[in-house]
Amino acid sequence: MAPDSTLTLTRPDDWHLHLRDGAMLAHVVPLTARTFSRAIVMPNLDTPVTTTYSALAYRERILAALPHGTPFEPLMTLYLTDETTPDEVRRAKDSGQVHGVKYYPAGATTNSAFGVSNLKRCWPVLETMQAIGLPLLVHGEVTDPAVDLFDREKVFIDEQLIPLRAAFPALRVVFEHITTESAVQYVRDGARRDLLLAATITAHHLLYNRNALFQGGIRPHYYCRPILKRERHRRALLEAATSGNPRFFLGTDSAPHTRHAKESACGCAGCFTALNAMELYAEAFDSVGAIGRLEGFASFFGADFYGLPRNREKITLIRCNWTVPQELDLGGDTLVPLRAGETMAWKYID
Ligand code: NCD
Ligand code: ZN
Fold first, then answer.
1. What are the pLDDT digits (tens) for 333-346?
2. Could you say which of 13, 144, 158, 253 is catalytic?
3. What is the CATH superfamily name and number for domain 12-310?
4. For residue range 121-178, what is the model confidence (pLDDT) as tens digits?
């Protein structure tokens, strides 16, 4: 095989992942653990993970779902609510297992009904997080129905993120799954002043623009929040991800929902990418001749931001066509991966 057909890189981590619970958890954990060493696990379960106690219990359920002998470290998060206390975030930090607190504006996305109604209510908690160095992970969309769905990230920056960072200049913030050139610009400029702000970028936002949602008909498996944007935004994201700027790193936002829940008159938001995540990212980086920049984005910058050691082992991807399965069996229902039935150009080798 030609040398440029093989890509060896340090084992990556996923800095934004949904694993769910119960039967779904059991099916998706092995897929992520096959490729990634660690993952920041989102707390938006049906009953959100709001306490250190429930985060540690959830962590045990994740570990129990791992195939025997698979080394994988779930990095837990708390779900911020109007009721979260400074004591709780201190307890979280002291546990050594909780690495961030997730801020969902109430109603922004899947299972966000318990999210924060007004961030001002969380001021004492944010002060504590700033003091103890626990990052705030932000779902950056306003929920005001008067704001166009496609503008909600930009409005969030202006109305919430800028005031938040002015009030807590030393708070570590991850702007999750950014989707617009405004977000890219904000994170890039912020990074000039300090090293406290970073952003995750999904594979699907690097590969697709909003046309994918309507290619020949409505395509529910491309529907996620924040929603796919115009091509100009995808280009800006791709440029940021491949720029080598350590403020941008990998977070798949792989968000499994059953086929039944996606293919519905009111389908759930979320793209399931855990099955072929690194292959999707490799394709995106390759598309602009930047495959050499993938390792920093996937394996180094996130660990550096979270103050965790970089992984040591290596993984291999080869350039090789394969077909993504149409669905995965969940026993009763099925799970449709992104690119189901289509061809991938890169393959992760166990
Ligand atoms: C996520 C989910 O399904 O939990 N959905 C999504 O579209 N990304 C929630 C989220 O990250 O917003
Ligand atoms: Zn998410």
1. 999 999 999 999 99
2. 253
3. Metal-dependent hydrolases (3.20.20.140)
4. 899 999 999 999 999 999 999 999 999 999 999 999 999 999 999 999 999 999 999 9
CA of 285 to the centre of ligand 2 (A): 22
- What pTM did the predictor assign? 0.97
Ligand 1 binding pocket (C-beta < 6 A) is 18, 44, 109-110, 139, 224-225, 253, 255, 269-270
**Two structure tokens written together for 262:** 């996606």
253 catalytic, yes or no?
yes
Give yes or no for a contact between 200 and 176, defined as CB atoms under 8 angstroms apart.
yes
Beta bridge partners of 346: 319
> Closest-lying ligand to the alpha carbon of 77?
2
Q: At what angle do helices 231-241 and 277-286 cross, to 10 degrees?
A: 100
H/E stretch holding 322: strand 314-323
CA distance 236 to 50: 34
> Domain ranges in the chain?
12-310
Q: Give 326's contacts (C-beta < 8 A, 6+ positions apart).
A: 336, 340, 341
Buried b / exposed e over 59-93, threshold 16 CB at 10 Å, is beebeebbeeeeebbbbbbbbbbeebebebbbbbb
* % of residues, the chain, pLDDT over 70: 98
76: Cβ contacts below 8 Å, ≥ 6 apart: 41, 43, 49, 55, 56, 58, 59, 97, 98, 99
Listed in sequence order, the residues at least 6 apart from 236 whose beta carbon sits closer than 8 Å to its beta carbon are 180, 181, 184, 185
Instruction: State the residue for tokens 């979260």.
Output: 84
CA pair distance 206, 228, nearest whole angstrom: 10
Ligand 1, atom 5, lies closest to the CA of 270
